[in-house]
Write a structure and sequence with these properties.
Helix content is 55%, strand content 5%. The chain has 521 residues and is mainly α. The chain has two domains: 29-254 and 288-404, no CATH class; 418-508. The strands form two sheets. Strands 4-3-5-7-6 form a five-stranded mixed β-sheet, with helices on one face. Strand 6 and strand 7 (503-508) form a beta hairpin. Helix 6 packs antiparallel against helix 7 (138-149) and helix 6 (108-133) runs parallel beside helix 10 (172-181). Residues 1-21 are annotated as: Disordered. It comes from Hymenobacter caeli.
C-alpha cells in the first residue's frame, strides 16, 4: 500500500488541470507508432487484399461513402431483414464522411480501412500525450503507448473489417487529456466526434463524461461542465434512437438494438429495475452462459480474464474508469447474442483506451524509477501475452485465425486467384442492381445498388463464387450456397452471362416477378 502522503498527493493532482509534457530530452512516439501502423496494416489491409472482408459492415459503409461522395442520400440495401432504407436509420453515424476525400483516390472500402487504421494510431498518440501530461517521462509514455497498441481488443476489431465505433472510441484519450488540461473547446470537439460516431456511442459518452467529472471532482467548474455535457449526450441518444432513426426507417421500425436485451424487460428502465431487484440474475448474466447451448460455456469468463490481464486491476482505486466501462460490459454480457459475449470482433474496442488511461494514472502512483518500470513491464507483459495467446486460440466462438493472426502464413494466402477474380469482377456491367456474396461486396466499386445474396429483389444480375467458404457465403452455409447455384442455373429467368473456375455471373431475363424475392433453403 502506498504511503498516506503519496495517496494525498495523488488525489490532489485531480484538483488542478493537467500540465504539458515535462521539459528535457524528448524522444517522440514516431517509431512505435510506425511499427504499430505496419502491424495493423498487416491485419486489416491484408484481409481486404485477400478477399476476406465482408458486406457487413465494410461493404455497407463503402456504399455509404460512395453515395455521400456523389452528394446523394445513402441507402442501406445490404440488410437481410429490411428493404433498402436510409443508412442513418440503421446506424446514426457521421464518421464515414471523413473517408470521402480518400474515396476519390482508393475507393470506398480501402478509404474506410485506412481511416480506421489512422484513427487507432491517433488514439495511441492520445494515450502518449495523456501520459506525458500526467508527468510521465518519455520512456514511460512509450510504455503506455505500447500497452495500448498491443491490446487484444484492437486486434480483434481490425481483424473484422471496419466499424464506426472503432473510430469513435479513439477520441477518448484526447477527451480525457483536454478535459484534464481545461482546454474545453478541444474537449468539446472530441466529445462531439464521439457523439456522432454511432448512436450507441452517445450513451457510452454519458458514462465517459460522468467518469471524468468524478475524476476531476475537486474542480467545480469542470464537474458542472462535464455534467451538463453528459445530460446533453443522454438527450441526444434518446432523441436519435427514439425519434430520428425510426422516422428515417422505411418501415418506421423502433430502434432495433434493444431486442438483444428483451429477456430482461419490455423497456430499458424496466430491464434496469428487474436486474437491480434480482441481483442473482445480474450475477448470472455477467459470468455464466445464459444460452441453452453448452457451446458458449466459459466465453464470458474468457472476457473477464482478458480484462484482468490487460490492466483492469488499475480500476481498483480509480472507480471513475470503472464507471466508464459499465455500459460496455452491460452491452456485451447482458445481450442474448453470444457473439457479443467474448473477445471477438469490434465489441471490445472501447476497453482499450479506458484501460490504458487507467494504467497511466495507476502506475504514476508508484515511486519514480525502477518501481514504475516494473509496473509498466508487468502490465505490458500481461496484455501482450494475452493478445499473443488468443491470436492462436480462444474460447469465444466463430474466431477465424486467418483474419486476425498476422503471425501465420495462412493470413497472407488467398483462397482465390486474386488477379483472375478481380479481372472477372471488372467485367461486370457498370449499372444495375446486383445480388452479391458477402466477401465480394467490398471489392466492387461504390456507389451502386447491391443486395446481399440470397436477397434478389430487383437485381439485374447475381454474382456468386463457385466454392465459397462459410465466411464468403454468409448467411448461407457452403452446402446451401451450392444449392443456390444449382437453383439459379435451373431457373428460366436467369442465364449464365459469365463463368470461370471461380466465379459465376447470372443475368436476369425478362421482368422482375417479385421485387421482394429472397431465396430460401
Amino acid at each position: 500500500m502506498a504511503p498516506a502522503h503519496e495517496n494525498s498527493a495523488y488525489e490532489s493532482s485531480y484538483s488542478r488541470p493537467l500540465g504539458n509534457a515535462p521539459a528535457g530530452r524528448r524522444r517522440g512516439p514516431a517509431l512505435p507508432l510506425a511499427l504499430a501502423g505496419v502491424v495493423y496494416a498487416l491485419v486489416s489491409l491484408v484481409n481486404q487484399y485477400n478477399f476476406r472482408t465482408a458486406a457487413l459492415d465494410l461493404g455497407l459503409a463503402a456504399q455509404v461513402v460512395g453515395d455521400w461522395a456523389h452528394g446523394r442520400v445513402a441507402y442501406a440495401a445490404l440488410l437481410l431483414d429490411s428493404p433498402p432504407t436510409n443508412f442513418l436509420s440503421v446506424h446514426f453515424s457521421l464518421t464515414p464522411v471523413l473517408a470521402v476525400p480518400l474515396y476519390w483516390l482508393v475507393g470506398g472500402a480501402w478509404a474506410l480501412l485506412l481511416m480506421q487504421l489512422g484513427a487507432v494510431l491517433l488514439g495511441a498518440l492520445g494515450v502518449w500525450r495523456y501520459a506525458r501530461a500526467r508527468g510521465a517521462t518519455g520512456g514511460e509514455a512509450r510504455w503506455a503507448l505500447a500497452f495500448f497498441c498491443c491490446q487484444w481488443g484492437i486486434f480483434s476489431a481490425l481483424g473484422f473489417d471496419y466499424h464506426d465505433n472503432v473510430v469513435g472510441a479513439m477520441a477518448v484519450p484526447w477527451l480525457a487529456l483536454w478535459a484534464g488540461q481545461g482546454r474545453w473547446g478541444w474537449a468539446a470537439a472530441a466529445a462531439l466526434f464521439l457523439l456522432v460516431s454511432k448512436e450507441n456511442m452517445a450513451l457510452w459518452l454519458v458514462f465517459v463524461l460522468l467518469g471524468l467529472a468524478w475524476q476531476h471532482r475537486h474542480r467545480r467548474g469542470a464537474v458542472a461542465g462535464l455534467g451538463l455535457a453528459a445530460a446533453g449526450a443522454l438527450g441526444y441518444f434518446l432523441l436519435v434512437t427514439h425519434w430520428v432513426m425510426p422516422a428515417l426507417d422505411v418501415a418506421q421500425r423502433p430502434f432495433s438494438q434493444v431486442v438483444r436485451y428483451r429477456q430482461w424487460g419490455a423497456s430499458v428502465p424496466g430491464m434496469a429495475w428487474n436486474l437491480l431487484c434480482h441481483p442473482q440474475l445480474l450475477a448470472q448474466a455477467l459470468f455464466c452462459n445464459t444460452d441453452p447451448s453448452g457451446a458458449y460455456d466459459y466465453v464470458k469468463l474468457e472476457l473477464w480474464g482478458a480484462l484482468l490481464c490487460s490492466g483492469a486491476l488499475a480500476l481498483r482505486r480509480q472507480p471513475w474508469y470503472a464507471l466508464m466501462l459499465v455500459p460496455i460490459v452491460g452491452q456485451k454480457l447482458l445481450a442474448n447474442d453470444p457473439a457479443l459475449w467474448g473477445i471477438n470482433q469490434q465489441y471490445s474496442i472501447e476497453f482499450a483506451p479506458v484501460l490504458a488511461l487507467a494504467l497511466v494514472d495507476a502506475v504514476r502512483r508508484r515511486p519514480a524509477g525502477s518501481a514504475r518500470r516494473r509496473g509498466w513491464r508487468w502490465a505490458l507483459a500481461g496484455a501482450a501475452g494475452f493478445t499473443l495467446v488468443t491470436l492462436y486460440a480462444r474460447q469465444s466462438k466463430w474466431y477465424d485465425r486467418a483474419t486476425t493472426n498476422f503471425l501465420t502464413g495462412r493470413h497472407y494466402r488467398c483462397p482465390y486467384d486474386r488477379a483472375a477474380l478481380r479481372a472477372a469482377l471488372a467485367r461486370l456491367p457498370a449499372r444495375g442492381p446486383l445480388s452479391v456474396q458477402s466477401n465480394l461486396v467490398p471489392q466492387l466499386p461504390a456507389p451502386r445498388r447491391l443486395y446481399l445474396f440470397p436477397v434478389l429483389r430487383d437485381a439485374a444480375g447475381v454474382v456468386l463464387l463457385r466454392h465459397p467458404d462459410e465466411a464468403a457465403g454468409w448467411p448461407l452455409r457452403p452446402e446451401e450456397s451450392q444449392k443456390a447455384l444449382a437453383q439459379l442455373r435451373a431457373r428460366p429467368d436467369f442465364r449464365v452471362a459469365y463463368e470461370d473456375a471461380q466465379l459465376v455471373v447470372f443475368a436476369r431475363r425478362g421482368p422482375v416477378p417479385d421485387p421482394a424475392e429472397v431465396l430460401h433453403f
